[in-house]
Amino acid sequence: HVHDGLGFVRVAAIEALAQLAERGDEKAIEIAARLVEDGDWNVRGAALRALCSLAHRNDASVMQVVARCMEDRRSEVRQAAVETMSHLAARGNRNAFKLVSKCLEDGEALVRKMAVQAMVQLTERGDEAALSFLRKRLKDADVGVRLAAVQAVVALSEKGDRLSIDAILVRLEDVVGDVRRAVLHVICHQAGKGDQRIMEAVARLMEDGVGDVRRAAVQAITQLADQDDQVALNAVAPRLEHQVPVVRVTAVEAVALLAGSSGGRPKEMIVSRLKDTHVSVRCAAVEALVHVVHQGDAGTINLTCELHNDTDACVR
To answer: What structural domains does the chain harbor?
Structure first.
């Protein structure tokens, strides 16, 4: 049936062969290798997936077959070839690395994305050659490629790698919110605690127009700083006076999470918002007080008693 006149039958046949044959079966590998030249691109893709299941790691002859498919006229086949190569080649295989790195410049975004993901499978952490290629993909025109590149750079970089940190931080200005959020989720894994430049960059995202990004910024800055960290509090402080109420709410929430057991400055920052002009900020400040005051704090009790007369029922 691998020679049937209908393409979908040939696809089914090669898929069945991949399931039934044992890994290393030379006859099955030979059949799959021939079918990567089939006139139907669906069959070529199925044949590549079959080779992934049938061939042993670092099989040079099979890898040559797969390498030719990386130049296929159909992007779907090139994508399948890159994925197959990432599974067939052992980590550290420099020939596979060179072949996949060329696909990072492919004209189709899905092929570039697959190549980015494959680089993580093929190289060791700290591989500067791979990281150099991947940092360039952080500026890719396609958002999916940029997202994959953020994850890949973090996966391969050593903690504290300044080149990678700087490249990732640039994406905090990305036009797509999902990319900005992805950077916020991973930056704490790369940067050490207490880095003023990074905390200030993260704090700026508390003003973001996308709610998920603002929330991610709060989580990131609390992971980048210890409790009562003055650098972090300094970075957050200007947002307590921001003209947009939701930004002030975000800042209050961040201060509450940064507050230590001593109260002190975090308490003062939150108390300053108890008389905010916007009800959502006052509510956030009331809820945040529990994180920054000790039980029996007379001054805070008096302040909250005054709020019983607030004009808004939610605050009361």
So the answer is: 1-122 (1.25.10.10), 228-315 (1.25.10.10)
